[in-house]
Write a structure and sequence with these properties.
Strand order of the largest sheet: 5-4-6-7-1-8-14-13-9-10
Strand content: 15-25%
Radius of gyration: 20 Å
Largest sheet: 10 strands, mixed
Helix content: 25-40%
Structural class: alpha/beta
Number of strands: 14
Length: 413
């Protein structure tokens, strides 16, 4: 019999702030975290804006100055979000069996900044000038490894790389680890820092990004007729999962129960979604079946909603496939309209949104939804947050490679 799993800690690093309460307040106000890129010179780029994180790692209590130089930006984000989530959970590792506590932190790309920096050193200065810390900094599992070391957690420890589904798949794998008895506590989510010259150029040149340089805060507009691509962003979202009775025994605060997880593959185009939404629908249906819920039990869906012409339409089709007549009664929103698309971190950040939605009874808006696409004809909560009691929420994450993942979070009954 599967054990029940609850969320007891939340942590984020985003373009709208670090502390969960600050982040949530700005989400509900409809603020945008999108602005000019300052990390590097973008004067030669067609796209010159992103969801950049204001970041001073030396002010974070994650490592000393010497150690920080050995950590890529995406690992720093993951460590900060994990530290916040663990602190929020109230867990005391000295009172836990460390072999029953694990970490799964995903990333779509990993240490791209380090890869670029060391490749430049190789070309300009020669082989001997490439840093011996190159590989440990750029590897995708660096974040998970460093979080494990920082917190002293010796249980299951690995990373998932499924593009924009990385965090959601990581959370799903962490859920399974607890459900089937491999761990009692898991720190899980995703982190991404692909806002680099190569990252921006690559997404720009494949025409995946919005080119709305004249109005960057209006560039991410999921489900709107004027959408022309996503806004590249960076950040991290981490949650603490815990076996229900373990959490109850220690008196931990519970945000909700992680009830279901589903994953599938499109087996089609490497970057374009299945226009019929079959793979996405399969992941949602599997998550509902795993949770033991009928579709009409869901009140809110945090959509993948990246603001791409094909993706938003395909997700709308998929939601209708799964929810049938109930699709029209769902409240749906895309917080990527405010944050931009944090790629492999998005599923972690968006599960935090779902937890706060259940806790506070407010649906986050989809900003910039001024002229709805007739093909996206569901209730996408345009522009203004809405009060609503939510007992069950779903979070969708779909990635390049045809990776689909859905999570179901419910109020603990």
């Amino acid at each position: 019999m599967k054990r029940r799993v609850v969320v007891t800690g939340l942590g984020v690093v985003t373009s709208l702030g670090r502390a969960v309460e600050t982040f949530w307040d700005r989400i509900l106000r409809g603020d945008s975290g999108v602005g000019p890129v300052t990390l590097f010179d973008v004067s030669a780029f067609r796209v010159q804006f992103a969801g950049e994180v204001a970041w001073k790692p030396e002010e974070e209590n994650i490592a000393n100055v010497k150690e920080l130089r050995r950590l890529d930006r995406f690992t720093q984000f993951a460590m900060a979000a994990a530290a916040d989530a663990f602190s929020d959970s109230g867990l005391d590792v000295s009172k836990e069996d460390p072999y029953r506590c694990g970490v799964v932190i995903g990333s779509g790309i990993g240490g791209l900044a380090e890869f670029e920096a060391q490749h430049e050193r190789l070309l300009l200065k020669g082989i001997d000038k490439v840093s011996p810390f190159t590989i440990p900094k750029l590897m995708v599992n660096s974040a998970s490894g460093h979080v494990s070391s920082m917190l002293g957690l010796k249980g299951p420890n690995f990373a998932v790389a499924t593009a924009c589904a990385s965090a959601a798949n990581s959370i799903g794998d962490a859920l399974r680890a607890i459900q089937y008895g491999d761990a009692d506590v898991m720190v899980t989510g995703g982190s991404e820092a692909a806002l680099t010259p190569m990252g921006l150029a690559g997404f720009q040149n494949m025409r995946a990004l919005s080119f709305r340089s004249d109005a960057p805060q209006q560039a991410s507009r999921p489900f709107d007729m004027g959408r022309d691509g996503f806004v590249l962003a960076e950040g991290a979202g981490v949650v603490v999962l815990e076996e229900l009775e373990h959490a109850r025994k220690r008196g931990g605060r519970i945000y909700g129960e992680l009830m279901g997880y589903g994953a599938s593959g499109d087996a089609g185009h490497i970057t374009q979604p299945d226009e019929e939404g079959r793979g996405a629908a399969r992941a949602m249906s599997m998550a509902l079946a795993d949770a033991g819920l009928s579709p009409d039990r869901v009140q809110y869906v945090n959509a993948h909603g990246t603001s791409t012409p094909l993706g938003d339409k395909a997700e709308t089709v998929a939601v209708k496939r799964v929810f049938g007549p109930h699709a029209g009664r769902l409240a749906i929103s895309s917080t990527k309209s405010q944050l931009g698309h944090t790629l492999g971190a998005s599923g972690g950040i968006e599960l935090v949104v779902c937890a706060m939605t259940i806790l506070r009874g407010v649906i986050a808006p989809t900003i910039n939804l001024d002229n709805p696409d007739p093909d996206c004809d569901l209730d996408y909560t345009p522009n203004v947050a809405r009060d609503a009691k939510v007992d069950v929420a779903m979070s969708n994450s779909f990635g390049f490679g045809g990776h689909n993942a859905s999570l179901v979070l419910g109020r603990l009954g």
